Amino acid sequence: MTLFQAVVCGVVQGLAEFLPVSSSGHLILLRSLLGWEDPGLYFDVALHFGTLLAVIAYFFKDWLDLVRSVLDKTRPQAHRRLFWLLVAATVPGALAGKLLEKWAEETFRAPTIVAVMLIVVGLLMWWGDSSGKLGRQLESLELPDALKVGCAQAFAVIPGVSRSGSTITAALFLGLTRDAAARLSFLMSTPIIAGACTLGALHLRHEGIPADQRAAFAAGILTSAVVGYAAVSGFIRYLRTNTLKPFVIYRIAAGLLVLALSH
């Protein structure tokens, strides 16, 4: 893998991890269309580490308030309640990631499957974005709501589904505002991405990064972190006054294009 390829993959990861279009799916399609060799899951883990840095940086104060509310009972109960709801919402995705992610990544890496998932989730996103009243805020979440969004996150082990796409869509069906749905999705993604990075780091501790690939790994991490931070910030601001229609159109168009090219 060249330095240029690492930077391009970092840009794709930083954008697609937080925009509801599927980072794993786009990385598969990118490499397939350009004929690039797949560097393996460890490089994808490195890219995820970059996006982990991005989401922690953006939500640092939020996480600080949430953790402090658990340690200090005099702090607002709403923060403590949200913390435990996020813990509950993380469980389905964590179990799916632990038990199924490697199998799903190896089984569903075909471009046609990614294309189908782009289309299916795009249609569900359109349905959730255009139906019902989207007026609920994070403070209104109940345990069943958190578990439903958590189960939606579990399906993100399939490339093309998109972690943010599945969780934002589920949150919209529950009536959350678009920006509240995005904030919930990104807060939920933090422990999931951290867990995946930790598992990957444990494997790399024994195998190590090849000396000739260290610069590429570093470039991929840095690029995905910078682009990811910009994507989180811009996407949340966008959703305060706009719909998800452009992302729905993009998902469906991209899926149809890949299906057409595959035949």
Write down how many β-strands occur, each being a DSSP E stretch of 2 or more residues. 0
Order of helices and strands: HHHHHHHHHHH
Name the shape in a single word: globular
Total helices: the number is 11
**Mean of residue pLDDT values:** 88
Give structural notes.
With 263 residues, the protein is an all-alpha fold. It has one domain. Helix content is 78%, strand content 0%. The chain contains eleven helices and no strands. α9 runs antiparallel to α10. The longest helix is centred in the middle third of the chain and has 31 residues. 46% of the residues are buried.
Offer a concise description of the structure.
The chain has 263 residues and is mainly α. It has helices at 3-18, 23-34, 41-58, 60-71, 77-107, 111-130, 143-154, 163-173, 178-207, 214-239, 245-261.
SSE topology:
Elements: H1 3-18, H2 23-34, H3 41-58, H4 60-71, H5 77-107, H6 111-130, H7 143-154, H8 163-173, H9 178-207, H10 214-239, H11 245-261
Helix pairs in contact: 1-2, 1-3, 1-10, 2-6, 3-9, 3-10, 4-5, 5-7, 5-9, 6-8, 6-11, 7-8, 8-9, 9-10
Protein traits:
263 residues, mainly alpha, 11 helices, 0% strand
